């Protein structure tokens, strides 16, 4: 991905230096994802799936268990620190800021054209170790996430190393796809899709709630594909393959098989590797929000 001539987003908050463990506030702290009890096996599975791109995984745990989430070592967290001075920022920081800026430019253009409304940009919070968001608290091990409550993307850039070494998905565009996916969740929020899905999940069984969540995640993958198409002029040969490799590496079936040796489709919350690849590719091929209707029925 050729970013040398790209500008950096100013919508970056630096919350690093606030690392440590957290205790999720009572009640799970954020989104409701249906009822039902959750056993240890489900907690382990969610811990693995939480490494996948998506919303704050602690809200999944808190919502499914119907209570206070998983207690973690507590540490008081203050307000986010100001962004680091430009001269103190690392190459990775600048990469993140530039990729975020490409999403702002893409959706600042496409959203009014395709939806008829101005685009409201999200902020991206860089953190290390752990962070408290509007959706509750999270640790870096749970991966990047988007919080609809405060409309912010949360990212510990060490996840990029995990994507490369642990999941076998190297490359700068694999990392950029992570950001594009999370911004896709922001698109869903400002379109009102997130609220509709959470309302439906609150009335659904655990299996039905999971199925709805899969459609949410696949739509975010598709929207990342739309963003990629709009930035073709700065992509290198092989960049789309990097994104597809990353999508496959973090499919629910791939993660479950690696973690527990078996695949349980009814517990999927993000979609299979093939589905994630297919919907990213669909977004890239169509270049439209309308082309990303994962809720319209039919084959996922």
Unreliable parts: 20-87
Residue-averaged pLDDT: 80
Oligomer: single chain
Class per helix and strand makeup: alpha/beta
For the largest beta sheet, what order do the strands appear in spatially?
Answer: 1-3-7-6-2
Strand tally is: 7
Task: Explain what this protein looks like in three dimensions.
By secondary structure, the protein is an alpha/beta fold. It has one domain (12-292). It is built from ten helices and seven strands. The strands form two sheets. It has a five-stranded mixed β-sheet. A two-stranded antiparallel sheet has the order 4-5. The radius of gyration is 18 Å and the shape is globular. 48% of the residues are buried. The model is unreliable at 20-87 (pLDDT under 50).
Summarize the entry for a quick read.
The chain is built from ten helices and seven strands.
Write the layout of secondary structure elements.
Layout: E1 12-14, H1 40-49, E2 54-55, H2 57-65, H3 91-115, E3 123-126, E4 130-133, E5 136-139, E6 145-147, E7 152-155, H4 158-165, H5 172-191, H6 193-202, H7 206-230, H8 239-249, H9 252-260, H10 273-286
Parallel strand pairs: 1-3, 2-6, 3-7
Antiparallel strand pairs: 4-5, 6-7
Helix pairs in contact: 3-5, 5-7, 5-8, 6-7, 7-10, 8-10
Keywords:
10 helices; 5-stranded mixed sheet; 7 strands; two-stranded antiparallel sheet
């Amino acid at each position: 991905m050729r970013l040398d001539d790209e500008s950096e987003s100013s919508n970056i908050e630096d919350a690093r230096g606030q690392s440590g463990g957290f205790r999720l506030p009572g009640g799970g702290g954020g989104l409701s994802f249906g009822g039902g009890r959750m056993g240890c096996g489900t907690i382990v599975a969610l811990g693995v799936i939480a490494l996948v791109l998506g919303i704050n995984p602690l809200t999944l745990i808190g919502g499914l268990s119907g209570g206070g989430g998983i207690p973690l070592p507590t540490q008081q967290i203050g307000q986010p620190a100001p962004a680091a001075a430009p001269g103190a920022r690392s190459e990775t920081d600048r990469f993140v800021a530039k990729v975020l800026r490409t999403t702002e430019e893409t959706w600042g253009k496409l959203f009014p054209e395709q939806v008829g409304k101005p685009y409201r940009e999200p902020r991206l919070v860089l953190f290390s170790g752990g962070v408290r968001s509007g959706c509750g608290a999270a640790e870096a091990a749970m991966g990047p996430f988007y919080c609809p409550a405060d409309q912010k993307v949360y990212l510990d850039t060490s996840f990029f190393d995990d994507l490369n070494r642990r999941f076998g998905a190297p490359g700068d565009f694999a990392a950029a796809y992570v950001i594009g996916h999370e911004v896709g969740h922001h698109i869903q929020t400002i379109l009102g899709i997130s609220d509709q899905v959470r309302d439906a999940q609150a009335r659904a069984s655990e299996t039905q709630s999971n199925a709805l969540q899969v459609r949410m995640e696949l739509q975010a993958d598709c929207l990342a594909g739309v963003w990629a198409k709009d930035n073709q002029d700065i992509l290198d040969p092989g960049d789309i393959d990097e994104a597809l490799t990353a999508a496959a590496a973090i499919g629910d079936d791939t993660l479950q098989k690696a973690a527990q040796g078996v695949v349980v489709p009814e517990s999927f919350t993000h979609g299979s590797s093939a589905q994630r690849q297919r919907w990213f590719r669909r977004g890239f091929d169509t270049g439209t929000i309308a082309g990303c209707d994962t809720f319209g029925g039919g084959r996922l």
